[in-house]
Design goal:
Blueprint (H helix, E strand, L loop, with lengths): L1 H10 L3 H53 L1
């Protein structure tokens, strides 16, 4: 009787186990995605900053040429 009862209890699916596995899987996927997003955002910001600096340099150069 005890063996039958223990076999039934191990065959059931615990909702808590499913929730824990889903949360663990989401965290497992979220970490690399977050790292990739941070790298992409920083890369785009750097490119945008370079373009703005080029425009400012061009405007300053045009302003200096107009004074002469």
């Amino acid at each position: 009787m005890f063996l039958l009862a223990s076999a039934q209890s191990t065959a059931t699916i615990n909702t808590g186990d499913i929730i824990f596995q889903l949360i663990s899987f989401i965290i497992f996927l979220a970490i690399p995605v977050a790292i990739i997003l941070i790298v992409v955002v920083l890369w785009k910001r750097n490119n945008r900053l370079k373009r703005v600096e080029e425009k400012v340099d061009k405007l300053l150069g045009d302003q200096e040429n107009d004074k002469m």
